[in-house]
Specification:
Blueprint: E1 2-6, H1 11-15, H2 18-27, E2 32-37, H3 42-46, E3 53-56, H4 62-72, E4 76-79, H5 84-92, E5 97-101, E6 112-114, H6 125-134, E7 161-166, H7 179-187, E8 195-201, H8 206-215, E9 222-225, H9 230-237, E10 242-246, H10 249-257, E11 261-266, H11 273-276, E12 285-290, H12 294-315
Parallel strand pairs: 1-2, 1-4, 2-3, 4-5, 5-6, 7-8, 7-10, 8-9, 10-11, 11-12
Helix pairs in contact: 2-6, 4-5
């Protein structure tokens, strides 16, 4: 069976699709799983042993995309995130069975629609994705290995535990600490002789990097600016003992590779950890909802600082 799974949006969104790909491959070992993704996620998809083929969505026209899909001769498709362009392309490609959530005008181009109402956040995003598969394969086992994304860490074993801070977010988060707050957090653990502090930055994080360099003062911390692929950065994150960031794609990478996280979410149901928690072991995820009220935010920050000190202590004892 030749199956297409579509999730052609941002890094974190695609990470939420990985459990779906994995359980489907386990359920149908002889099937061929192809993913349609945006270019930035190509290296991650190619690193997954449960994904057989990758189609990169470069923004080509609907007819061009349909031609590419038709050449693969898919038996069925699961569209985890839909828009009119990908819906029409699948219809033009004459994929026999096309499954998608029953949302937006685009749903008319699918011949099997599943009512999910994701805005109610009755489960996490990755669980909604798996539920779409369950609508067809009712007896599928939704358990998946941990960590799901198994990459070889690209930093050799060393005496010190690495705690990484990632202030940037590429515009994909609804809440974040300031660069100064990240610096203050890091300074609260810099006296621990068994901890190495690293600040990481990705493409588009130039302003965060400049602010960090300007305001870090006497903080002794290494700086890493990601210039390789997303898979390369994920392998670096797999080397860390703790990854601290907002709820952006890097958080989802950290959870997928099994790195413990401290993560900041907006204080709303739509952007909450209930919806966007990582696909990794929940016991390794330390999630915080950042309140809009200034006094409540200060109290939350104090809690985060105390929790970080305790986590750093536990890492080195």
């Amino acid at each position: 069976m030749n199956i297409l799974i579509l999730r052609n949006d941002k890094i974190g969104d695609f990470i939420t699709a990985l459990p779906t790909c994995y359980i489907l491959k386990q359920h149908l070992p002889d099937c061929r799983i192809t993913v349609l993704i945006c270019p930035i996620n190509q290296s991650i998809a190619e690193a997954c042993d449960f994904i057989d083929d990758v189609i990169v969505d470069t923004g080509q026209s609907t007819t061009q995309l349909a031609k590419t899909l038709k050449q693969h001769q898919f038996d069925l498709s699961f569209t985890l995130f839909s828009n009119t362009r990908v819906a029409v392309a699948q219809w033009l490609a004459r994929i026999p069975k096309r499954i998608a959530p029953a949302t937006k005008i685009a749903q008319v181009f699918y011949n099997q629609r599943v009512i999910q109402r994701r805005s109610q956040v009755k489960m996490a995003e990755f669980e909604y994705n798996m539920a779409l598969i369950q609508s067809i394969f009712h007896d599928i086992n939704t358990d998946y290995r941990q960590p799901l994304l198994q990459l070889k860490p690209n930093i050799r074993e060393q005496d010190k535990k690495i705690i990484a801070f990632h202030p940037g977010f590429g515009g994909s988060s609804d809440a974040n600490l300031t660069v100064d707050e990240y610096i203050e957090l890091s300074k609260s653990i810099e006296d621990n002789p068994n901890i190495q502090i690293i600040f990481t930055f990705g493409p588009g994080d130039d302003n965060f990097l400049k602010a960090f360099e300007k305001n870090k003062g006497s903080l002794e911390a290494q700086t890493f600016v990601s210039k390789g692929s997303v898979a390369d950065f994920a392998a670096l994150i797999a080397s860390f003992s703790l990854f601290i960031s907002t709820s952006t794609g890097t958080f989802h990478l950290a959870s997928a590779v099994g790195t413990p996280t401290m993560t900041f979410f907006a204080d709303s149901l739509f952007a909450s950890s209930k919806r966007w928690k990582g696909i990794g072991d929940e016991s390794l995820q330390h999630n915080y909802m950042l309140p809009q009220d200034i006094k409540a935010r200060h109290a939350m920050f104090k809690t985060v600082k105390n929790d970080l000190k305790e986590l750093a202590k536990n890492l080195t004892t």
